[in-house]
Amino acid sequence: MNAFLAVARRDLLLAVRHRAEAANPLLFFLVVVALVPLGLSPRRETLELIAPGVFWIGALLATLLSLERMFRSDFDDGSLELMLVSPQPLPLIVLAKIVAHWLATGLPLLVAAPLIALLLGLPARSLAVLLAALVLGTPTLSAVGAIGVALTAGLRRGGMLLSLLVLPLYIPVLVFAASAVSAAAGGLPAAGQLYLLGALAALSLTLAPLAAAAALRISVS
User: Over the stretch 43-62, which tens digit does the pLDDT of each residue have?
Assistant: First the structure.
């Protein structure tokens, strides 16, 4: 537990020290969501129809934008090799980095969600479901993304390959989360989609650290 907290604290301190880089995903998310009404239609009926999909596409792309720094700096300065030879379990270290990434990227999206929902004209009754979907869905994005980052950690320009690896795996989260918000906005129950998002989160947070740890050993060797 001490190792887990130390790694998470280190990554959060790095995010605080590089505020501009850490803020890029949130700014990108806000710009995408703000430009959609201008590019399509400012009519409330249109915005209510497309808002769930736009919101989650923006969240997905913002998370993808921030993934590469999860292991890249550790690989560049040699910290990753020390983690590999550390007596601490590597999957536990990877899980700490996933949690730190979510706190630096997913949590700001969660805080900004009410403002974005107001901007997109989402009904107030769908806000609780939107927040619940974010709490369940964004950790899955960070966990699954960790596998892709671990596989491309040793590549100089792995951003494009990372996108190709991770985006197909993000589709279930996008579908279920957007569907839950759409159902809530239409006054329909969204419990089924939230249960599926919860199952995906539990599965990814359990298995992704193991897969990412194995991928890191392959990338560094």
Answer: 776 777 777 888 888 888 88
pLDDT in tens, 110-136: 888 888 887 777 777 888 898 999 999
**Residue 103 tokens, joined:** 């706190």
Give the separation between CA 12 and CA 22, rounded to whole angstroms. 10
Q: Which residue, chain included where needed, has tokens 């959060």?
A: 12
- Provide the whole-model pTM: 0.87
